[in-house]
Amino acid sequence: MAVAGRRYSRRSMVPWYRGKRTQKAIKDVLAFSILTLGAILFIAPFFWMLSSALKRPEHVFNPNWIPNPVAWNNFPDALTSVPFHIYFKNSAIIAVISTAGTVLSASLVAYSFARLRWPGRDTWFAIILATMMLPGVVTMIPTYILFSRLHWVNTFLPLTVPAFFGGGAFNIFLLRQFFRTIPMELSEAARIDGASELRIWWQILMPLAQPALATVIIFAFNGAWQDYMGPLIYLSSEDKYTLQLGLTMFKAGGGGIPMWHWMMAASLVVMLPVLIVFFVGQKYFVEGVTLTGIKG
Amino acid sequence: MTEATAARPVREYKRPFLTPWRREALTGYAFAMPWIFGFLTLTLGPMLFSLYASFTSYNITTPPHWIGLGNYSFIFLQDPRFRISLYNTVYYVIVKTPVVIVVSLGLAMLLNMNLPGQRIFRTIYYLPTVITGVAAIFLWVWILNPEGLLNRALGLFGIRGPNWFYDPAWAKGGLVVMGLWYIGGPILIFLAGLNGIPSHLYEAAEIDGAGTWAKFWNVTIPLLSPTIFYLVVTNIIGAFQVFNSAYVVSQTAGSNPGDPAQSLLFYEVYLFIRAFKGSMEMGFACALAWILFVIILIVTGIQLWLSSRWVYYES
Hints:
The complex is a heterodimer of chains A (296) and B (315). With 296 residues, chain A is mostly helical.
């Protein structure tokens, strides 16, 4: 109380521009300006895509921002020139299944590494990290042979099933880091009350790690949606193609001429679902998780 | 547990098989099982095959032919492109990692402030990450063209921009600049990390009279250290493995992968050329891959060892 009293009396003596409120306002205006400036840089590529998507083919390399004339029909033309609804369905099936597999299994595995003690744990964790370190190019062919022996080639299985086996080292590592920041006292209290580890994982850790889980969902969905090599290697019949494979068709275009304007239009449409997932997912950053009442 | 044991008549002092310690160990293995199973069935085999292939002459179409340390001795003793690509890659790792971490942390802190329009701002900063495949590369070559968007923007401030991907001295810089548009991921991870810092810690620091700077160093950084550690480790691994952007950009700007003047000949670009271009030396590429594996392993090992000195965990 004595400290607060002294602070109060000193505050009345500082000039207005050094007052707490003014300082905060200056800080906010500065932050807002930096964010706006950065946002212009970050949105520029998107606007340029939009502009190219609305140009006529002979104007695509023209540096003007505003297309003249505006070729609105690029969008319906691009989307009907290849069977996009089939590709969309395939991409959606793969992305949803593999995202679900990634979140569930990565969080389960990460729980084990962050919150439980067992012999060999640190060695296994080192192996998890090690799997990120070998360039994928050299395991691509043996992996393909493995999947073809399992008769998984030209099915969605190579693109979805591996997600259920831990969801990849990056996600396990990420969730492990977040789980380790949640106070151990919470788990111990639940254990004393007789809760099983499965229950602690699902009812305590998962709700508290919502921002991290939202991050993993956004990454997993984005990764599956934008995956080009996987579908290229494993899917051969056209009715199983994904959107990314469909998009490259515009590069070969009609008679070998790249259809950049169509590609930009179709790319913009393809981006939409990922943006929607992001927009919904970021709700968990705004609302946040409060750990009030717990001291670490 | 204890109640049940106590209720039973005590006949002998034999410990039950499932001691709390054993129970936790079994649960630990059970929870980690999805990954362990997947590793043993899907990942380990192909990894061991590539290790074996690194000691062979192997061009994918015919069976591997054992040549012992032949690939390794050529790489270490006679291969100038190995040295160039390793130099380029290490340069890229050293320049790019701190830039990405500092810029994304700064932006994440701004995006975490209580300001109007934050949801829109966050979406805009994530937008470039969402732009897909071929369209994105096409876009980048156009933006970093000598007369492209970036240089025209710099021109507004009277700065004459470099030739980026057409100039060996600036090509790697161009790639780092290009990478800055893709920091939506690190920003997101930092936002999730900032979100987990309990606000009462800031309030306590304020009562102690801490200013913005003191709060940043004494609350934000320690509590964010697990997140920073994750991003440093994964970004270094990712930068060591830079391939896609470098490969496509160099082919668009020059005629060979790695152009201009081998300035974009990164380790994995070189590995890819060996594996799939010309005579398809997959065995040689596997040897290159395992050398990179060991390099990254050592770098990551050092970071794990140092982490106990600066990474702060709750448990």
